[in-house]
Structure formats: structure tokens, C-alpha cells
Amino acid sequence: NMGYLPEAIVNYVALLGWNPKTTNQEIFSMDELIAHFSLEGLSKSPAVFDYDKLGWINGEYFKAMDDAAFAQKAREFAGELPDYLEANWESLAALLKTRLTRFGEIKDEISFLIDMPAFDAELYVNKRNKVTVEKAVELLPTLLELIENVEESEWNNDSLYAKLEAFIEEKELKKGLVMWVLRIAVAGQKVTPGGATELLSLLGKEISLERLKKSLANLQDL
């Protein structure tokens, strides 16, 4: 119910109180566990159940899964989704696949795509990319205009990324600056699965523009 794969649980439980003597391997299939098991590997010390270690093992199983199989298994844990996310579920699941330690984390990971988080101007500040609130206020109107002119037929990650790259080159701007401002404006939170154009693609043009306009209005009201 928490979203751990049965095979990951078996793998982890097998390592409680037992260490293989013939390998440093930690991810085992059932056949591999049988092949490597020996009584000499058993420990007399009490086993400690560590959820972090179980989460790491489960995450490794996620990474090894086929994208389509992962998306199918993950879907039931996402709950009811708005149409724009339902239509793009496989793309969203692919972004989540390497970030999760269990399926039960999905709702928290994607909540910002359903309801825009409360505005926080400090999120725009990023020393590495030399982003300030002032730069965001200056840059966002131009980015909004650029995004608004993208046709629905071209509203996908690759096309949006290409248009932004051309804009960055033309204006001689730093990519990190532009992408940071755009991602924060559309996501409303610091850490996200996927970059700016992937999020725009997932949200669709209408929702993306609503969010960008709202973020710009909040910045201008400071």
C-alpha cells in the first residue's frame, strides 16, 4: 500500500541478517539470491530494518523497469488527475521514475502540477545562475510573449526547447538564467521533476500561460 514493489521487499528482507560471501552485489533476483545464499553469511547480530535502504533498493528496481510498465503500475497511486496530466501521464511518469523511492510519494511529487503553490519571490533567487527577483521581473514579460506565440501544434518539449535556445542565443543570455526564471514561474517551487520546457509541455498552453501571467503579476506587485 505504501508503494514498494514485492520483488524489492524480498530483495531487502533477504539482506536482513545475511551478507553474501561471494559478491558485493545488493540488487538480487530470486534466482541470484538462491545461487549466492549460504549459512556462512548469516549474522548473529539483530537485524535493523532501515526504510532508507529499502527505499534505495526499491528505487533501483524502478530505474530498471520499462517506462510503460512503470507508468502503468504508478498510475493507481496518482489518484484523480486533471485532463492535461491524464493525457500526458506516460511522459510525467518517465520524469518521476528516477526520483521516487516508492509509489506512495507520487501525489506529493506532482501536487504542484495540479495546484500552483503559494507565491514565493525568494524562489527566483539563484546565485549559481545569477538570478535575482529584479532580473526575473525584467525577463519574464519577454518570455511570456515568446511562449504565447508558440502554436498549439508546436506545444511539445522539443519545440519549446528549440525556440528558447534560439531566443537565448539571439539575446546573448545565459541559459541557466532563462530556464530558472521560466521554471520557477510555471512551477512555483524550487525542485521539480523535469525542466522548464518539460513542465510547459505537461501543463499545456492554456494552463502554462495562466501560471506565467499570475507569476508575473505577483512579481510586479512586489
List the helices and strands and how they pair.
Elements: H1 6-14, H2 30-36, H3 51-64, H4 67-78, H5 83-87, H6 89-96, H7 106-114, H8 133-148, H9 157-171, H10 175-187, H11 196-220
Helix pairs in contact: 1-3, 4-6, 8-10, 8-11, 9-11, 10-11
User: How is the main sheet built?
Assistant: none
Order of helices and strands: HHHHHHHHHHH
Which structural category fits the helices and strands? mainly alpha
**Quaternary status of these chains?**
single chain
Rg calc: 22 Å
Q: Give the N-terminus to C-terminus distance in angstroms.
A: 44 Å
- The fraction of residues assigned to DSSP E strands is under 5%
Residue ranges: pLDDT <50 for 5 or more in a row?
Answer: none
Overall 3D shape: elongated
* Total beta strands: 0
Number of helices: 11
Mean pLDDT: 96
What is the helix content? 55-70%
Description of the molecule:
The mean pLDDT is 96. The protein is built from eleven helices and no strands. The protein is mainly α and 222 residues long.
Q: What key phrases describe this protein's structure?
A:
222 residues, elongated, 60% helix, mainly alpha, 0% strand, 11 helices
